[in-house]
Design goal:
Shape: globular
Mean pLDDT: 95
Helix content: 10-25%
Bound molecules: beta-D-glucopyranose
Distance between the termini: 66 Å
Number of helices: 17
Radius of gyration: 29 Å
Length: about 950
């Protein structure tokens, strides 16, 4: 009897649980970060996501509470801000509008929402802490060792220093309430408190031009400090502060550019300790600290690697009571010239570990480790040996043959780590102030054969979230996606580097103009690129000129249109993909200054023709080791490329001005755009043969894409592109400036099938050709396997062009509605190319998860879609009548949440709200 009752009760509760719609607020973030202790924005932007079991959920109102303590917030005492109930659908980037926030202020917050399908309870609590907002907050002094030490290689191809170890002990007498550490160690630092590392970031802080901007990191160290004796230890590495190459002030003979160096490494550290009694004390860097250069890291820099002598370790140096009598008093160092700021973008972390695919002996008695994947990071070793045995690790991306590494494409980067053993059982080690781009490692100096268990590849890059996934029925497409994924993560290092392996590793503006957009479908790169825009801003000359490499570790001021156009085009990507309204507004004056500078300095007859790189890296056909083509028939006039990109930037500027209500500016850019358009057509369009310039695909594609071609000529110009594509056997045949638009251009003008053919080619030149030749990442050159080593990285993302955008917006059909931003509206309009049977793609937008899973089943399309709460989608279904469509087995017209928008002979457009949908379309005529 009793058991029956329990069973009935259980069933009753269970069924209520099933029926009860659930609604909650999750994923709270402040300035995109969770529980971040270094917020500088005085009105930080708050975002949340809604989870709902009901379809078509839309937020109608929200309330945010912000308190100065967790206890107060638990009691709903919002002493910092109670927004009250705000009738609004905003759930992202809501500006804090409470009590003015001061340095160090801790803010605890939660939110609840009202929706058309019920109200949520309060969310879980998230917090943030304000950074140091005033220069006077700093009590710390810059310290270091202002001299070379014995063994340092002062001026050479590989300028490496021994790491500097700094330490200080401090006694804490009272009960600790909370403690926050603020650290800038330039070029790179690792900080330890009482023997334990602070945070789990590596290669910190983020890279900048230290003459302009100096980042510091904030960490909550409450749990690290204790009442009584404490010790703080910091290790400083070269990074980019102590330049890795120094040509005595002369330009680098190979690149012709001047290289920057800032001086010896230095540290600024301040720990703010708050006591239970309300008082505050600071532990900070000053002349009382001790330093030594006689620690185990004998030499370090990013290009050449790290040398470590385990016999020189001094156990306990970062714990209290260590005998530091042989250490020197630190030198007080000049502050770097740049402005100190709290770093908002993600630091680098160890994001994944790989087990080698194979370890084998070479004919020289060395061992080869094959990671099976071109990766970036380092090799952690796990080895035994005698004191003084030296293990040398040489890194390379490729092999000459199974026995020999190919290192020529590293140029002068030595990419070598050495570890001298202490001879005490199994020794585990990895470097901390270098990284390598590699798949293979040759190991020297082992007396017994190692196994795969003795090595671990640690993959390091910015701690950005992976937000996109893509698989399809085509293996080439899938492998290209994987290679792209690895290449992008290989080059996120606080700056978007061009390559991770040779003696370059700088951020070229041109490489990222459009690939940043494709990357944004796979990684949340919003803070990385917003940071890079700040880097570009401070790199701008007084007159408005922008360099081509930023941070300007290499000084390349060429004044061309295409590369610096990244400063205008990337903020548009941030606006579109992440609803970032702040970046283009902040940089608008700088962008305008550059536009005017280029116009005033270089325009003739209404055209800015100033160019340097042309349509960079067109696949050569004149010889296997040629780097790029010089064939005049295949290269595009750089002036045409420049003038068309300038036009495109004018259209973006006009839009940025309008969005800010700057009507005069909008009109000004518009007028100039009209002048450029007509001058461009006059100069470059051949009205007799209906093509632009010398009739390359890039010459025709750029004006076509940017809207410069007169309506009556559009079809003809597109036909020229089709002819050229056919001439090159349906292979990619543009350089990077054309490739940024090529896949979309083909698809938008009615040839998505051709785009698919180009994308899935396996013969030269194509992404598939790289794979056929063993690539696990994207190459810098279409002929990377045979091209000259001078410029031949195997981990370079620029040749991706607009391929990833095409994967998401066209193959998967996930695109942010151009009329809105940040995927508040989604346009789902996939192409269904012949030969492609299914696509499964997902994208974690700032509103939540978007999914598009489609599959052809003979003449039927099955399409499963997910849209997050507070967003809607316009969906194009391939049918000429809604009668051919069912959702969840129910005829379309009978599903209440689906609204019919429009139809023509090819498609039915519907609007859906949030939720999961399962569409089936019958009698599809594929390819129409
Ligand atoms: C870089 C490229 C860059 C080019 C410009 C190369 O060394 O790696 O990615 O666009 O220089 O000249």
């Amino acid at each position: 009897m009793r058991l029956q009752f329990i069973v009935i009760l259980f069933l009753f509760v269970g069924s209520c649980g099933l029926k009860q719609p659930s609604l909650e607020v999750v994923s709270l973030a402040v300035e995109g970060r969770e529980n971040f202790p270094g917020i500088e924005e005085k009105q930080p932007l708050l975002s949340w996501k809604i989870r709902s079991s009901s379809r078509a959920t839309e937020q109608t109102a929200y309330q945010v509470l912000v308190s100065s303590s967790g206890e107060k917030l638990a009691d709903n005492q919002a002493d910092l801000w109670d927004s009250g109930k705000i009738n609004s659908d905003s759930s992202i980037h809501v500006a804090y509008e409470g009590v003015a926030l001061e340095s160090y202020q801790r803010c605890y917050w939660k939110v609840r929402v009202w929706t058309n399908h019920g109200d949520s309870v309060w969310s879980a609590v998230n917090h943030w802490q304000m950074a140091m907002l005033h220069p006077e907050d700093w009590k710390a002094q810059w310290i270091g060792l202002d001299t070379f030490s014995a063994g340092d290689r002062p001026y050479d191809q590989d300028t490496r220093l021994a790491a500097r170890y700094l330490r200080k002990e401090a006694t804490i007498e009272k009960e600790i309430q909370a403690a926050t550490a603020y650290i800038s160690g330039l070029g790179l630092y690792e900080c330890y408190i009482n023997g334990e590392k602070v945070g789990n970031d590596v290669l910190t802080p983020t890279l900048t031009d230290y003459d302009k901007r100096v980042p510091y990191n904030a960490y909550d160290v409450t749990d690290r400090l204790k009442k009584g004796a404490n010790a703080i230890g910091v290790i400083l590495g070269n990074g980019r502060f102590f330049g890795m190459r120094d040509f005595h002030g002369n330009p680098n003979p190979m690149t012709g550019s001047r290289q920057v160096t800032y001086g010896f490494p230095r540290l600024l550290l301040q720990i703010r300790v708050e006591y239970r009694d309300g008082s505050v004390e600071y532990i900070h860097s000053d002349g009382s600290w001790k330093v030594t250069d006689q620690g185990p890291i004998r030499a370090n820099n990013e290009y050449d690697g790290e040398e470590y002598d385990a016999r020189m370790e001094f156990a306990g140096w970062d714990t209290p009571g260590f005998d530091d009598r042989t250490w020197k008093a630190v030198d007080l160092m000049d502050a770097p010239k740049g402005v100190l700021y709290s770093q908002p973008n993600e630091n680098i972390k160890i994001k994944e570990t790989l087990v080698p695919k194979e370890v084998y002996a070479t004919s020289r008695g060395t061992y080869m480790v094959d990671m099976g994947q071109n990766m970036v990071g380092w090799l952690k070793i796990n080895l035994k040996g005698n004191a003084g045995d030296t293990v040398k690790l040489v890194f390379a991306e490729r092999m000459k043959n199974r026995d020999t590494l190919y290192t020529e494409n590293l140029r002068y980067a030595r990419a070598t780590d050495t570890y001298v053993m202490k001879g005490e059982g199994t020794e585990q080690w990895h470097p901390i102030f270098t990284y390598h781009g590699f798949r293979y490692v040759e190991v020297f100096g082992l007396s017994t054969p190692p196994t795969v268990a003795d090595f671990e590849g640690q993959v390091v890059y910015d701690d950005v979230q992976t937000i996109g996934d893509f698989t399809s029925s085509n293996e080439t497409l899938n492998q290209i996606f994987k290679n792209a994924y690895w290449t992008i993560r290989s080059n996120y290092r606080g700056i978007p580097t061009d390559c991770p392996q040779r003696d370059e590793r700088v951020a070229w503006l041109g490489d990222r103009i459009m690939s940043s957009y494709g990357e944004s479908f796979i990684f949340d790169n919003s803070r990385l690129y917003a940071k890079w825009m700040d880097d570009i801003q401070v790199a701008q000359n007084e007159n408005g000129s922008l360099p081509d490499v930023v941070p300007a570790y290499w000084i390349v001021h060429n004044d061309n249109v295409t590369y610096p156009s990244a400063y205008i085009i990337i903020p548009e990507m941030l606006r579109k993909q992440f609803a970032d309204e702040a970046t283009y507004r902040k940089h608008y004056p700088g962008m305008k200054k550059w536009m005017n500078y280029m116009w005033d300095t270089y325009s003739t007859d209404d055209l800015v023709l100033k160019d340097v790189y042309g349509d960079w890296c067109v696949a050569p056909e004149e010889g296997t080791d040629v780097i790029w083509t010089n064939d005049p028939k295949r290269t595009t006039d750089g002036g045409l490329v420049a003038a068309s990109y300038y036009y495109y930037c004018l259209t973006l500027m006009k839009n940025f001005a309008s969005l800010q209500g700057m009507d005069e500016d909008a009109a000004y850019f518009d007028t100039r755009a009209q002048r450029v358009r007509s001058a461009f057509n006059k100069r470059f369009f051949h009205s007799d043969s209906l093509y632009y310039g010398n009739n390359t695909t890039t010459a025709n594609l750029l004006p076509l894409t940017f809207g410069m071609v007169e309506t009556e000529n559009r079809d003809a110009v597109f036909n020229r592109i089709l002819e050229k594509t056919a001439e090159y056997g349906n292979h990619i045949h543009t350089g990077i400036m054309g490739a940024m638009w090529y896949m979309r251009g083909l698809s938008d003008h009615g040839r998505p099938d051709l785009a698919y053919t180009v994308a899935t080619q396996k013969t030269y030149p194509s992404w598939g050709y790289m794979i056929e030749n063993g690539a696990t990442t994207i190459w810098e050159l279409w002929n990377g396997n045979t091209g000259h080593p001078l410029m031949n990285s195997w981990n370079h993302q620029m040749l991706l062009g607009d391929l990833l955008i095409w994967y998401y917006e066209y193959l998967a059909g996930i695109k942010s509605d151009p009329g809105q931003t940040g995927f508040k509206g989604v346009v789902m309009h996939p192409i269904f190319p012949e030969g492609l049977e299914y696509v499964n793609a997902s994208y974690q937008s700032i509103y939540g998860m978007i999914k598009s899973h489609w599959r052809k089943e003979n003449q039927t399309l099955r399409w499963q879609i997910t849209i997050p709460p507070n967003a809607t989608a316009r969906v194009s279904l391939p049918a000429n009548t809604e009668k051919a469509i069912k959702e969840g087995g129910v005829p379309l017209g009978e599903v209440p949440e689906i609204r019919l928008l429009d139809k023509d002979e090819h498609q039915v457009w519907v609007e859906i709200g949030s939720g999961d949908y399962d569409f089936v379309v019958a009698d599809v005529k594929w390819g129409e």
